[in-house]
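Morning, I've got a small favour to ask if you have a moment. It would help a lot if you went through both lines with me. I owe you a coffee for this, so here goes:
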Amino acid sequence: MLTLAEEIGLHGYQLSSRVRKAFLSLPEPAVVDLMRQVREESARRHLIYLRDGQEEVVGLFPLPLTALPDQLTYLHFVSLTIQNALKRLAELYFQDFAIREILRIPPEEEAWLLDCWGPSQRENNPIFGRLDAVIDFTSPMWKNSLRFMEPNMSGIGGLYLVPTAERVIADVILPQLKRQDDDLELSLPSDIRELLMQAIREHLEAIGRPARNICFVEAKYAGSGIDEQEDLARYFHDQYGLKVMHADPSELSLSGDEVIYGGDVVDLAYRDYTVADLLVLAAQGKDVSPMRALLKQNRVISSIAAELDQKSCWEVLTDAKITERHFSADERQIFRRHILWTRIISDRKTTTPDGRERSLLDFARQERETLVLKPNRAYGGEGVLIGSAATQDQWDAAIELALADSTNRWVIQQLATIPVNEFPVLGPDGRVHTEPFHVVMGFAPTQYGVAILGRASQKQVVNVAQRGGMCVLFTGRHAARLHGPAGK
């Protein structure tokens, strides 16, 4: 007899197979034309990544991935549980020396955390983040395949790109799939922009500020990265009638207790800027006191708590001695099942994934093929070394370099099994063929839903910054109930 989870996984496989069959039944010239339309619509709707000042259209795979509503319900529950645990780390940072050592940040950044964390943040701590993870929705063991690789607690990319990519595929591809399979019903997941706006409105109400002027703060004049903030500001203005501004931190000013941009009071800021970045601006002689005031007044999403955003958050949540002190049995069960074992690399003893107390360095050297080495606070796939892709000498040398790095800390982490999906691609000969791609997800949970960013690459380090492509995920329902071997 199949378990309920296994039955759901097989239904997920059924749904995925129907979508793939519908797409692959299209004549090749029609597929080529659809791929051209997806590319043209991506460019027209500004799915753009800036690379050294040059605009690149983000690659978007035409074949959508699928999940069942029951799977998304479980995913929402798990990701929200983990995000709520992350929100507590700022308070625990001041209470528990072990946590403070794991999450240690430079003194200049810690001074901001100490100054800007107060009663308002304890009561209302807005974090709008993304949790990067892997999951295979088509496997009978889909629940066990859900493994979280790292947190992103602030300034997440894709707020405009993700829903726009979803709508490109919905407009161009879904009508063609429907013609091939009349009973196929697919729907869009939660819109990340709507989830963010709900978070903004709720936080403004909680702190007693009017919903008038929202400011998106980022490195406005940077020549690299996702180019989406102006599109996002325009969307919120058109949809909600709010005045949405787009500013570089250096363009803000203080007037008494109020922060001003372009003559208007900023009621709340959404930031794609860390304190570390602000300290760099300050060293260049720029005035960053307006951002500090906003953070201290709890008028920023994500809050100052997001300064603890680092891969070693997973060490806190996978160390049984720590989690037993601060988290419930139900939370600990989620952490054990779904968060990858992670440790700051150093010469010490620790509990390894098998529950034994061992030398961390001995374990790291001996278990190379099951581990990955990452810079603790970098992002965009920078500096990641997969043990199975390195020789033992290369791996040992990388560990020594990590230990000797006096500027940055590094983590060692269990290597996730990254699902592989086949996507149609256009070859140099102009013919369509399928190729395998590693797929990684990003989940942005709030109490109202979870938005999903899908990325695919033929490299095991999957990131748009590393020239990976985007893939979209739709929800649907299976056609018929499956039964166990006995037909019961």
User: Anything to note?
Assistant: The chain has 19 helices and 25 strands. The radius of gyration is 23 Å. The longest strand covers residues 432-446.
